[in-house]
Every structure is written in C-alpha cells, then in structure tokens.
Amino acid sequence: MIIGVPKEIKIGETRVSMTPSLCRRVTALGGKVLLEKSAGNSAGFTDAEYKSAGATLVVTAAKVWKNADVILKVKEPLPAEYHFLQQGQTLFTYLHLAAGPALAKELCRKNILGIAYETVEGSDGAFPLLKPMSQIAGRLSIQIGAYFLQSQHGGSGVLLGGIPGTMPGHVVVVGAGNSGAHAVQMAAGMGARVTVLDLDTRKLEALDTEYRGRIVTLMSNPANIEQAVADADLLIGAVLIPAAKAPIVVSGKMVAQMRPGSVICDIAIDQGGCIETIQATSHQKPTYQAHGVIHYAVPNMPALVGRTSTMGLTQATEPFIAMMVQKGVERALSEHKGLARGVNTRNGRITYDAVAKAVGFDS
Ligand SMILES: NC(=O)c1ccc[n+]([C@@H]2O[C@H](COP(=O)([O-])OP(=O)(O)OC[C@H]3O[C@@H](n4cnc5c(N)ncnc54)[C@H](O)[C@@H]3O)[C@@H](O)[C@H]2O)c1
Description:
alpha/beta, Rossmann fold, 8-stranded mixed β-sheet, 7-stranded mixed β-sheet, 13 helices, 17% strand, globular, binds nicotinamide-adenine-dinucleotide
C-alpha cells in the first residue's frame, strides 16, 4: 500500500499527517510512504528525517496524489486540491462535510472512499481522532481570548485572572465535551470566573466534582445561556452534535447584549459554528467585530501549535493507519466497526446519515 502525504495548504496550517516515527512504523509493516518535500517543515520535521525513516520524497503535490492508494492529510481538501483527487482513491483526514457541501459533492463525483477522522469511533463510542485536536483548541481558546481582550487588540482591557481587589474576567463555555472541558481547565487555572453549560448532566456533574465549587455549571437552555452570555468577557462555543451542522445556541440578540470589547471564540466553526453572528476567519485575519464584540472563528486553531498538534494527532491516528497497512483498507473497515464509522463517502454516495442530512443530499 502506498500512503501519500501532501503538504497542507490551508492558510496558516503547520501540521502534517505523518511524523518520521509513524513513517518508520508504516514502512516496517511493509507500506510505502510518498511524501511531498518539506511537508513536515513547519511542524519541525526535516526531509532528512523522513528519508531515513524510509519515505520517498517527491517535489510536487500532484505526484503524491497521483501515485498513492491512500491519501493521508490533516485538513479537508481545498478547492485548489479537488483536481488532484483520483477516481476511487481512499482519503483519510478531517472532512467536516456538514459544513462543506461542495467538497461532499466532489468526493461523491470522484467515488472517493472518504474516511473522516472526526467520525471514527473508539470502542466506547467516543471520537478518538477528534479528541486531541479538541483538547488543543479548548486550551488555546483561553489564551487566544486573553490576547484579544487586551486593549491594544481592541479588547475591553480585562485581565482574565484579575488581581486581588479586582473582579476577575468571566469566561462562559457552552459545551462541556473535550474542547469545553479543556477550556474550563485553562480558564480556571488562570483564575477567571468560569461558567460552563451543557445539555448532558453527566458532563456537568463530572466538572462540578472536579472543581468543587470553583466553577459554575448550568444546564444549557436559552434562559441560562442568555443570562451567562450577557455577563461574559470571553465566550467559548464548544458544542458538537457528531457529524451534523452545529446548532445555533447563542443568538445575535444575546451577542448584542455583551459588553463592548468582549471576545467570542467559536471553536465549533468547523461544523458551521454555534453562535449566530459567527463567520469563519483564518489565521491571516483571525477576528472581526459584530455588535462591538470581537469574533474569532478559525477552523484550524491547532495549527498555531503545529508541533504539539502533529504529535497529538498522529499518536491517535497511528493504530488505524497501521491496521490499514497490515490488513488493507477493506479488511480493516470490515473488521473494525469504529473505523468503519469514519466512512462518510463511498461509491459516489454520502454514507453517514448526519452528513447527508446536513448537506441535503446523499449522492
Ligand atoms: N476550530 C478548531 O480548530 C477546532 C479544533 C478541534 C475541534 N473543533 C470542533 O470543536 C467542536 C467541539 O468538539 P468536542 O470534541 O469538544 O466535542 P464533544 O463531543 O467532546 O463535546 C461537545 C459537547 O457539546 C454538548 N452539546 C451539544 N449540544 C449542546 C447544546 N445545545 N448546548 C450545550 N452543549 C451542547 C454535548 O453534550 C457535548 O458535551 C467540534 O465541532 C469540533 O470539530 C474545532
């Protein structure tokens, strides 16, 4: 099996889908790795390291896409990459098709076997390939929020931890899953006041037990969200309905009630965003203002810490990649139900119900 590793081209992207260590494992299992030159540079991995791990390096992305059985990526293919997709090829990457109907159409048109990292399931029904990036995005959301709250960045000038004798900043986190829980951890660690909302009482109970009264947990409903958001210095959107378009949980009216210079970081933007006033931004221009509130909605936040993110991602993908190399893609899919849950497109059709519903077609 030839695994192709193209260089990521999304704005500001620094991750790579394979480390030299993973490359060594793949080649030891009998697979071949075709890697675009300098693909690992921005994550701190040199071509020489890949070479000595057994990779064949090629100069152009086109050569990688043309000759690989399985394309291994980090981010979904961008329109500039659509023409590289080969009929019937396997693509293993984050796809987020609920927010990308054009890509969904393209994958169907080219009969791509599209296996989405974000819907691969572990034996516990959780999402092991989404988890590490969500943890990173959750942790980053607080330091990003703290940065944009600074006066010279247009923020309200609130220091999240405050100092003795002053009120600390208020961080409101909607969604207490992987990203939300890690945002809570960072915000509480900085000394902010923290309110977290979720629909799942077990998640709230776990956080309540962990922080022993140090944070406020609230059931997610419009009244509680409205009250919390109106007093938020930093609002984090961290909800997920697996593979579906994110639900809008914070209305434009609620955003309008926030104090000027407050900050919103909508982590869920890769699934369309959970805040009514949100639009995707990029690392090049990460924020804009609406209702006097700074909005941050970069869909590839982990790229800010490409080294940690690449290590976190590949340690999660490695068992699945090794399985595909050892057994072949079809056998791996038939023997591992969790990997099979990752299949979003196959034989010209969308095979994942929530994705088909979100994009409005299944073939
Ligand atoms: N922007 C980025 O760079 C980036 C990076 C990683 C992950 N993400 C995205 O972050 C989002 C969250 O991922 P996660 O791994 O934390 O998901 P998760 O499944 O671990 O947690 C999501 C939580 O949202 C809760 N939820 C659902 N509907 C809700 C509602 N109406 N109100 C309150 N809570 C609600 C769920 O109960 C769950 O606890 C996903 O869209 C994911 O793709 C984005």
